Amino acid sequence: MRYVAAQTAVEAVELLANEAGISRILSGGTDLLVQLKSQMIAPDLIVDVKHIPGMRDILPHEGGFRIGAAVSGAELGEHKALCAAWPGLAEGFQLIGSTQVQGRATLAGNLCNASPAADTVPCLVAAGAIVRLVGPNGSRDVAAESVIAAPGRTVLTKGEFVESIFLPARPLKSSDAYLRFTPRSEMDIAVVSCAVSVTLAPDGMIVAARVALGAVAPTVLLDSDCVKAIIGTKLEASAMAALAKAASVACNPIDDKRGTIEYRTHVAGVLARRTAQIAFDRAGA
Amino acid sequence: MKNTHIATKVNGDGVEFTCEPDETLLEVLRNRLGLTGTKEGCGTGDCGACSVLVNGRLVCSCLVLAVETQGAEVSTIEGMASGDGLHILQQTFIDHAALQCGICTPGILIAAKALLDKNPSPTDSELRFWLAGNLCRCTGYDKIISAVQAAAAKMRAA
Amino acid sequence: MNYVSKIRKFKQVGTRPARPDGDDKVTGRALYGADTVAPGMLMAAVLRSPHAHAQIVSIDFSAALAHDGVKAVVTGADLVAQDEGSLRDIQENCLATTRVLYDGHAVAAVAALTLKAAQEALKLIKVEYSALPHVIEVDDAMRADAPIVQSGRALENVPEGFSQNVTYHCQFGHGDTDAGFALADEIVTRSFKTAATHQGYIEPHACLAQMTTDGKAELWCCTQGQYNVRDICSALLGLEGSQLRVTASEIGGGFGGKTNVFIEPLALALSHKSGRPVKLVMSRSEVFRATGPTVSSSIDVKIGMTRDGRITAGRAELRYSGGAFPNETVSMGAQSAFAAYDMAAVETLGWNVLTNRPKEAAYRAPGAPMAIYAVESVVDELSQILNLDPIDVRLKNAARKGSKSSYGPTFDDVGLIETLEAAKAHPHYQAPLGPNQGRGLSAGFWFNFGGNTCVSLNVNTDGTISVIEGNPDIGGSRASISLMAAEELGVPYEKIRTIIADTASLGHNDITDGSRVTFSVGLATIKAAQDAIQKMCGRAAQIWGIDADAVTWEDGAAVPAGENAGKFPPLSLAEIAAVSFETGGPIAGHFEVNADGAGVSFGVHLCDAEVDPETGATKILRYTVFQDAGRAVHPSYVEGQMQGGAAQGIGWALNEEYIYGKDGRLQNSGFLDYRIPVASDLPRIDTVILEIPNPGHPYGVRGVGETPIVPPLGAVSNAVSRAIGKRLTQLPMSPPRILQAILKG
Question: Are residues C614 and C506 in the same domain?
Fold first, then answer.
């Protein structure tokens, strides 16, 4: 195995594109090192992208934020403006693992590891985040919800890696929220998760929403029926009931050591309601 | 695998070592540098016994490749006391019986110090959530919380 | 035997000085199992079965041995074959010979220049397995048609007609339970299931072995009992016990799980074969798969109660499985199940059943937590049905001095009533509860043990004291031992240094288990101090020119026994020590004993829990532990045991379990999915120490370490059951189970 700390994006792309064997990106390493130690993977090349200029920056951009792919969860958490604009996303990455894991883990890494239960992915999807990839053919932007193809697989082609993630400008009266269910208060992989982003009209009615469900399907679900249930409402009881039902119907979970189909389906509905309420209250505040 | 030469700083001292690219910082600290105060409880980032600071950031050393520390600054438990005296946190842990077997203690001290350096007045809840990544099986965490809060009060007064 | 002391008023016992190993542990200096090295050291790795049950057809390790850097490979053939019995089981568990009996069962080990080389070599060992049917659940394994884990292991008293997996049967009780049930106004019958759990110590097993060509060996390992390790390893390696010196490292948690031997014989065998020191450290996954979790259980309980809360009869049948090797842990369960109650009629039956799981080990009070969980759940349910205060029900039926216990002996002074009354009077019991909240309580009990113990106590010429004992310190015992030595001698705590000897430096000491150390080592220390005192009085008598009988000891000094003895100013310990070379030589005291007289320790736990009715998530809001310590030598460490045991019990009740797939393989062999409580899961754990002295110890000490894990299972289950208004009967009470109970009408 070889380790190279790429100094530029071009160098990284060349290394990845020209590698005949298995290559992996090292950002925070919180998934990669675990997979290495358990011998799940045996890469020939590891490309550390943390030294590439810009990869560790959070920059305001077009009213939103462009987050370098090597920014750690802890650094994100210390960025007051970003957390104020996206409290749900902040909740998402502050729930990954522990304080120590957040000291290393990155949004890009969490996304590209493509676990069905990843904490930041529902938030990025609900936020309408755009992922900028850079590769042998230049840059391209991909919507967050289109990055993951299947558990453990992304749409990135050979030589490509994530350079940054863009969070768009927020209209007035917008906010988001993230909730997940875990047996313990911390440290667990999500059994079910939900991220909701809403925008309210001046009168407080929901005019735009994105609802993403995690850990209940092979990939994150961006569900339009959930959105239909709450658009044009103020989350009255009937809207909430419809939302919960839509969330449960949308689920396609598995039975595993972390949860059963029955349990996940039920709790998805509960979390959808609760998450929507928090996002709604934040947006109206 | 080809050995790499790394020059880094550990507890303020310049240190050089060679290691393979897939060796973790934890392995290098313990096996190459003889710094066994940092412990391996799980090797997968789930227990926090291997907690250290890298460039001032609290991390699990089992989740850092040693080669990543080129030019970095690493802080371990061995660097917490200064010369002839224990750090306030270390002393209050003893005073409050906040350790039983002691295996989690280095990791918890490193993590607690990282919190107090950032937030000198945490609530009990903030402290518990900050330490959620440091497993302790002996104490039920109760005296640990008391000790850290007592140390925080002393550090604020100092 | 009565061990007495003159001390009536304690000056140091009961205080909270700093522990002697504190500095070392907060600075990272303390050396644990994996923290030492030796010149020329090799690293070892272990090959383990991926099958739950299989015949080993062949093992070919030639390619592994030829691999770059590999210096030795061992298999089961390299351990000395033991006669049938418990040593044979340990030997087979360390390295399988003909069959693998659980997922993770060791079949071979490699020592190489680097750990990486050893791990690569494991992949080159060719093991041919022939898979056999496996059985995992205890009730399945009892059936006559169950796959047989081992045959011919049943003890004589196991009746005909059961599967060969049923290896042990026991029965306890007295009185006529049928007649008792006939007297009851209300009877509840319930069945309970508990999963296997693991002690969860944060330090994986680790050792460093050196076996040289002259038949001597050195072993450094984290263990709760270095003498036990010596005895087992010398048998398995064909060594004389005296030639194997075992040194116990500092230990990163044990709780009963490090009372056994897993990797040490392998490291010694590899060292023997390679001629070099060998270090072997288990990975976290290996710890879960291949050390000693608790038994899993299936328990039926029937209790009858009168309208005013008097228990008329109780019956329990306990079916335990401790994995693939026979054990008798169910006997502890059967004995302890009703121990908190003064029963006119009680009957407990126990069965041990083999399953294709790892060989169980003790986890604080082995066998008791699940048995008492079941009984306390039924007592709580009866209290609810009869609308009686649950503490009053316990008080009405509590075991007390003179009660014939459910397991035979008659109790002497015991502190159950005092702990119940303390719980009732505590503000926790009166605090109001909100919606979705419930309060549960449970009594709990552990026998506590004495055992073989040696202590040497040396009086240094500078007036300081060296106490040499042989029990690894798993909870702060060195501080307590030093306190007792200081108290008895009448010198300050700071003058005492207590160390833990290796097996060559002191006579045999039983394992640190059974909550025996503060009791047995404490009393041996007190007696050793008395021995030294007697010798120092003799020296004083010599110095004064009077009879030894005329000298007594007071406040750390020799004084004339009375007016007639003469007018001499007191000679302090330091003064006597300073001239010891001139009065006959170095001064020491010692004591060797197989101690009895350990006192049982009762505890009561109060737990408030809140359940989210939509998800089944449980939050522990408040928790208070009441326990009788007899005499709390170092109250901080007694509190520590109470809090630590409570936390483990909470984890056991809510989230911890061994999860097996249909293939019989363990699915959650890591801290991610074997979920022990984290700091944010727990509230403050308040403690109330009661002291009803144990007449069997000079200072009244009772062991305290194990009792605290017993009540939490029942306390948490009772709290959750009351919070949701449904009785739960399976542990862990994970959120899906709780939600299912809530939603089922």
Answer: no
Least CB-CB distance to C202: which of B30, B81, B103?
B103
Residue in A with minimal Cα distance to B70: A5
Spatial separation of the C-alpha atoms in residues B37 and C114, rounded to whole Å: 21
Is C673 within 8 Å of A258 when comparing Cβ atoms? Answer: yes
Which phi and psi (to 5°) does residue C719 adopt? -65, -45
Name residue A280's amino acid: F
Chain C contact for B86 (CB, 8 A cutoff): yes
- Is the domain of C642 the same as that of C511? no
The helix (run of H) or strand (run of E) holding residue B1 is: none
Cα distance from A143 to chain C (closest Cα, Å)? 31
**Chains within contact range of chain C (3+ C-beta pairs < 8 Å):** A, B
Burial of residue C85 (number of CB atoms within 10 Å: 0-12, 13-18, 19+): exposed
Q: Do C655 and A185 lie within an 8 Å CB cutoff? A: no
Which of C595, C627, C654 terminates a domain? The answer is: C595
**Tokens read off for A225:** 């029926």
Work out the average pLDDT over A218-244.
97
Task: Calculate the CA A205 to chain-centre distance.
Answer: 27
Residues C531 and C539: their CA atoms lie apart, in Å, by 13
Residues C741 and C604 in one domain: yes
CA nearest to A258 within chain C: C673
Min Cα separation A201/chain B (Å)? 35
A/B interface, count of CB pairs below 8 Å: 91
Reported as a single tens digit per residue, the pLDDT across A103-150 is: 999 999 999 999 999 999 999 999 999 999 999 999 999 999 999 999
Location of structure tokens 């598995």 = A254
User: Is residue A28 over pLDDT 90?
Assistant: yes
- Residue A98, min C-alpha distance to chain B (Å): 5
Residues of chain C with Cβ-Cβ distance to B102 below 8 Å are 21, 25-26, 30, 250, 252
- Write down all domains in chain B, each with its CATH number in brackets: 4-76 (3.10.20.30), 88-157 (1.10.150.120)
Binned average pLDDT, 10 residues per bin, chain B of 158 residues:
94 98 98 98 98 98 98 98 94 97 98 98 98 98 98 96
Interchain pair A101, B58: CB under 8 A: no
Give chain C's domain count. 2
C651 falls within a domain: yes
Segment A248-273, tens digit of pLDDT: 999 999 999 888 999 999 999 999 99
CATH code of the domain containing C430: 3.30.365.10
CA C493 to chain centre: 28
For chain A, list the domains and their CATH numbers.
Answer: 52-167 (3.30.465.10), 174-284 (3.30.390.50)
Contact C678 A184 (CB under 8 A): yes
CB-based contact C655 A183, cutoff 8 Å: yes
Burial label, C212 (beta-carbon count in 10 A; 0-12, 13-18, 19+): middle
If DSSP codes are grouped into helix, strand and coil, which group holds residue C679? helix
Please give the helix or strand (H or E) that residue C223 lies within, else none. Answer: none
pLDDT of residue B84: 85
Closest-CA distance of chain C to residue A172, Å:
33
| Residue that is last in its domain, among C580, C595, C610 | C595
Domain carrying residue C547: 22-29+450-595
Q: Is A259 on the interface with C (CB under 8 A)?
A: yes
Question: Can you give the three-state secondary structure of A164-176, one letter per residue?
Answer: EEEECCCCCCEEE
8 Å CB contact of A29 and B131 = no
Distances in Å between the Cα of C686 and the Cα atoms of B31, B142, B144 are 41, 9, 14
- Could you write out the DSSP letters of every residue in C451-506? EEEEEEEEE-TTS-EEEEE-S--SSSHHHHHHHHHHHHHTS-GGGEEEEE--TTTS
Single out the residue of C91, C86, C39 nearest to residue C218, CA to CA: C39
